[in-house]
Amino acid sequence: MPAPQEAHFGNDLSSNYPDVSVVIPAYNAAKTIGNTIETVLAQTVPAKEIIVVDDGSADDTAMVAEGYGPFVKVIRKQNGGPASARNLGVRQAAGEWIALLDADDLWAPDKLERQLRLVADPEVGLVHTLTDGQRAQVPTTLSFEQLWDRNWIVNSTVLLRKKAFENLGGFDETRDLISVEDYNFWLRLAASGWKILLCPEPLTQYTRGIGISSDTPRFYKAALCNINLLADNLSLPKRLVKRRISNIHAEFGRTALYNRNNLLARELLIRSFINYPSPQGFLLIGAACLPAYVLDLKRRARTLLSIIVSKTPMRSRTLKEFP
C-alpha cells in the first residue's frame, strides 16, 4: 500500500477533462481492494475522488481502504446488495462523471483518459471499455435493441454521466434483481435516449465471479424478473418480450444440459421453444433427450479436435477454410 502522500489527484491532464468520481462497492474484499484502489491512483488522468462503500463486510475491507488516507472516502452501511451500495456512493459523489469499479477488478493506467476523450457530446450517457480477453465483437454504439438481446457491458468498465444516473433514479434495489441490477440500468438508460459508446480497447481486468452454472436458480429467477419488470415499465411489445424470455430459457437450458441435468434442460428448452419456436430450439430439445454418455462422447471429441487444431498450424488453417 502506498503512503498517502505518494498518491495524488490532479496533474496537467486533469484540467482538460470533466471531474470523475470513482465508486467502489465492496463486500468482504479486504484481500483485493488495495490493488483495485492502486490502479485508480495510477491513472494518467486522476479522479477527483474515490468512494468506497463497505456493504456490511465482516472482514477488514473498510480498514484497508481507510489506509489510503483522505484520498479515499469510506462509507459504511448495512448489507443491502450491490445496487444499494452503488446508489449510495454515486449520490455522495461530486464528479460530473462516475466511474464504476468492483472491488476485485483492475484498470489500465490510461483507462479514464481514453474514455474521457469520448464524452464531449452531451447526449452521451455512458462509455464502457472491453475487458482483458474479451472475444465477442462488441458494437461501438449500443442501441436498446442490441442490449435487449445481450448484456454487452461489464460494470467495472463503465464511465457514467451522473446526470443520466439522476434522471433514471439510480439502480433498481429490488432484491430479486441482484446479479442483473446493472443490466436493468443499462436497458433503462438506452430506452431513455442516452447514447452508449464503446472505447474499443481492453482497459479493464475483470475478475469473474460466480457463474450461472453454480447458482442457476437465483440467476434464472433474476433474469426473468428483470425482463418482466422492464416489459411492464417500458410497455414493450409482447413479441419482443416473448423472444427474450425464450432466449433466457434457452440459455439456462443449455447450462443445465452442459451440467448433464437433462431433466431440467428439457423443461427449460421446451419452455423456450413454446415462447419462440425455432429449428435450433428443436435440435436442443433433441439433444436433451440423448443419454448422458452420448453427450459426453461428443464433448470429448470436440475437446480432442480443439487440441489437434491448436497443435497443427496447417490443419488449423484447413479447418477454418472449410467449416
UniProtKB/TrEMBL annotation:
Pfam families, A to Z: Glycos_transf_2 (PF00535)
Signal peptide start-end: none
GO molecular function: transferase activity
InterPro entries on file: Glyco_trans_2-like (IPR001173), Glycosyltransf_2 (IPR050834), Nucleotide-diphossugar_trans (IPR029044)
Keyword Signal set for record: no
Domain Glycosyltransferase 2-like per the UniProt entry, residue ranges: 21-128
Highest taxon of the lineage: Bacteria
Keyword Membrane belongs to the record: no
Keywords: Transferase
UniProt-recorded name of the protein: Glycosyltransferase family 2 protein
Organism whose genome encodes this protein: Muricoccus nepalensis
Lineage of origin: Bacteria, Pseudomonadati, Pseudomonadota, Alphaproteobacteria, Acetobacterales
